[in-house]
Amino acid sequence: MTIMAEHPVSLWPAAHAADARRPRSQQTKIGASDTVCARRAGYLLHGRTPTDGGEMRKAILGTWLHAGILAAAREEYGWVIERRVEDDTIRGHIDAVQLDAHTASRLPKRLRPSLPAEETTVEDVKTKSTYQWDNVLRHGASDAEIRQVFLYADLLRTEGFAHIQGQRQLARLGPVPVGRIRFRFLNRDNGDDHVQEMAYSADRARGARWWVQQVRSAESPEELPRSFPGPGLSAVCDNCPFKTACWGSALAGRRPQSMLIHDDAEREEALAQYVEVTEQMKPLKERQRFLRAQLDGSEEGVYGDNVLSWSGGNPTKTDDVEGMVALYERAGLQVPMAPDAAAMKAQLKAAGVPVPVRLDPERRTSVSINVSARKTP
Length: 377
Ligand code: SF4
Prior knowledge:
Layout: H1 12-21, H2 23-26, H3 38-45, H4 57-77, E1 80-86, E2 91-98, H5 101-104, E3 121-128, H6 130-139, H7 143-158, H8 168-171, E4 180-187, E5 193-199, H9 202-217, H10 235-238, H11 243-247, H12 264-295, E6 301-303, E7 306-308, H13 321-330, H14 341-350
Parallel strand pairs: 3-4
Antiparallel strand pairs: 1-2, 2-3, 4-5, 6-7
Helix pairs in contact: 3-9, 7-9
The protein binds iron/sulfur cluster.
């Protein structure tokens, strides 16, 4: 018998449950992909229980895209995908390794790539939204993303593939001479891709190891710095499973970051920095307004390294009251005759009579900060 649901069910609860069972979601040992924020890596390393569920839909979509594209790379090019690397302190899953011809020749024929690399390349696939795409094209991988992949490459160079079931032949290769790192960014909205490559650098790998060492040597997560500015200011924090542990529960009406100021001395310091930053931004904002005015009316197109396009400028929609009245009358419905507040206000003002007002306890004006120089006595 087929059981019919009354309403179409959402697939997201199933997707979240399946994602939570993945080994990577359950690991408490520090993983290379956990090295995005020092404080968060500390919470994981100390086995703290996550305090926040977080919105996982984008991450789950990213995982599914990864699985599809990496499976295609394995089937078509014979790349080594989704393999574990680890040592005593850290572990990770490398998205893809494109072996050079010499290293590949040491594997059984069926495991050799059809498309070997000039030099062994560790590849990491990153899915991004259109919103983040301009940043990807301009700046490439972030420091945290580079650190993560250098950790993978360094583990491969020093330890090789982990000795675990399913990759024993690869583990027998021993340390693998990685020569290159590659990021493959995928726009999950339109499929655009962008590749960024860099040579393996022992200095950068040492820097990444040092970062991990700092996290490992902290006695508690609270000793470690927050790598991001917090909820509301960083998407990483907004989706962090330790958001509440890290920032506490903000006082009603206050931003979480306000907990960083404890006394008037810290308030004085923050205020001085606020004034300094505002002063620095002023000439830049003026220059930006001037440049915007110069560009007004320019044709859309590619100019040097930048693409110019325009948005907005469309007529805005407004309620068509006459149309609504006509629809009501046609349907035989009574047209509501509410007082016309705008017309009454205009008439009272024209007659010089103050318009009566009352405070609405439900609505508040937005809070603005005002800082001015102190008067010297
Ligand atoms: S909330 Fe932000 S700063 Fe705190 S641990 Fe998470 S990512 Fe790091």
